[in-house]
Amino acid sequence: MTDKIKHIAAGLGIALLVALPVWHETNNLFAGLWACVSGIIAGGVKEYTDNKHDGGRWDWKDFGFTAIGAAIGAVIIVLSHFAKG
C-alpha cells in the first residue's frame, strides 16, 4: 500500500510543481488542466521506463494512482482559483 501512496504523492507533487506557478502568474483556470496532464504524462513516462528496463512491466495500478494524485492536484488548483475570487 505504501507504494500506491508514493504514486499518489508523486502525481500530486508533479501536478502542483507544474501548475501552481502557471496559475499564480496567470490566474487561469486551465492551470488545473495542466496539473492533471503533467501528472499523467509523468506517470506514463515512469511506467514506460519500468517496462523497458530491468525486466519490469507496465503496472496499470501504479499509473492509475499517479493519475489520481494528478487529479487531486487539479482539484486543488481549481478550488484555489475559486477561493481567490
Can you lay out the helices and strands and say which pair or pack?
Elements: H1 2-26, H2 31-52, H3 60-84
Radius of gyration over all CA atoms, rounded:
14 Å
Low-confidence stretches: none
Secondary-structure content class: mainly alpha
Cα end-to-end separation: 38 Å
Portion in beta strands: under 5%
State the helical fraction: over 70%
Please write the string of helix (H) and strand (E) elements.
Answer: HHH
Mean pLDDT: 86
Please tally the helical runs, counting DSSP H or I stretches of 4 or more residues.
Answer: 3
How does this structure look, described?
By secondary structure, this protein is mainly α. It has one domain (2-84). The chain has three helices and no strands. The longest helix has 25 residues, at 2-26. The chain is elongated, with a radius of gyration of 14 Å.
Brief synopsis:
85% of the residues lie in helices and 0% in strands.
Descriptive key words:
85 residues; mainly alpha
